[in-house]
Design brief:
Layout (H helix, E strand, L loop, with lengths): L2 H15 L2 H18 L1 H14 L7 H24 L10 E4 L3 H6 L5 E5 L5 H10 L4 E5 L4 H12 L4 E4 L3 H11 L2 E5 L9 E5 L2 E5 L3 H7 L4 E8 L8 E5 L9 H18 L14
Length: 282
């Protein structure tokens, strides 16, 4: 029995009966506690931020603030992930910025690749698009079987279909043949066989072969993310999808474009880049 999974199941039950404002406060407290307790994860986030703000004059207090906010944001987003177990279309609270670009890309009838990163709440984004009627597939990381089953039920409840990264070839085939949107988180090399690229002032690995298939098959691409809105906004989340492109160029040129898009989003929301792993190649 996986204790983490059992705790998350308890969390799902509690979220059903708890007002969202109270859940947010509880999540913020839990996130802050983990920030102080799990020192090595805190240092991973600090390292990320030092790369993001390299060459800029930023006070240590501001870095520490971003570190705390990263843990708090992750915990709050987990409450929304738990809420996916019972949410309906009307329950999603999203400010739309170009969401219609997903369906416009599918008008090309060649499928579409939605490229995003571990920024904001990617699971909430996929479930939202599925609830909105977009035929969406997502590549996901395969974890412990019990946890994978729990996460799959939450992710697929509103209509999104998921495939483990190990089945990415089949997912791409489905995307093209059935004219679906395929969501790919491309800022991490989950398979550990990726290619190195410049990323901010450092080096990171991104998935191998992604650019090649996009260019070879002429698959339309959209860049997208879903992040928390700042306090005072009318909606909890901001969902942004850029107009689609059909890229003509080399894989190296595509990867540079993709990384530049990722850097732009991360720089704008540095405390919502939820990468708690030591993946800088230094």
């Amino acid at each position: 029995m996986n204790i983490t999974v059992q705790l998350q199941k308890i969390g799902i039950i509690l979220i059903r009966i708890m007002p969202l404002k109270l859940a947010d406060k509880l999540a913020a407290g839990i996130g802050l506690m983990f920030c102080y307790v799990v020192k090595y994860k805190r240092e991973y986030i600090r390292n990320n931020l030092e790369h993001i703000f390299s060459g800029e004059e930023i006070e240590p207090e501001q870095i520490n603030h971003y570190i705390k906010r990263t843990f708090i944001n992750f915990a709050r987003m987990m409450t929304d992930f738990f809420r996916l177990s019972y949410m309906e279309k009307k329950d999603f609270d999203v400010e739309r910025d170009g969401i219609e670009n997903a369906n416009r890309a599918l008008e090309e009838k060649r499928g579409c690749i939605l490229l995003t990163m571990h920024l904001g709440n990617w699971d909430y984004a996929g479930a939202f698009l599925a609830a909105d009627g977009v035929p969406i597939i997502a590549l996901v990381e395969e974890t412990d079987p019990e946890m994978f089953d729990l996460y799959t039920r939450n992710r697929e409840r509103t209509g999104m279909k998921t495939f483990s990264i190990q089945k990415s070839a089949y997912a791409f085939l489905q995307t093209i043949r059935k004219n679906h949107l395929l969501a790919v988180l491309a800022d991490r090399d989950i398979m550990k066989n990726g290619i190195e690229v410049d990323f901010f002032n450092g080096r990171r690995a991104i998935p191998r072969g992604l650019a090649d298939i996009i260019i070879r098959k002429k698959i339309p691409v959209v860049f997208a993310y879903m992040v928390f809105n700042p306090p005072g906004k009318n909606h909890r989340y901001l969902g942004k999808i850029e107009p689609h492109i059909v890229f003509e160029g080399t894989p190296e040129e595509f990867n540079r474009l993709m990384v530049s898009k990722f850097e732009e989003g991360i720089k704008k929301y540095p405390d919502q880049w939820l990468v708690f792993h030591p993946e800088w190649l230094e």
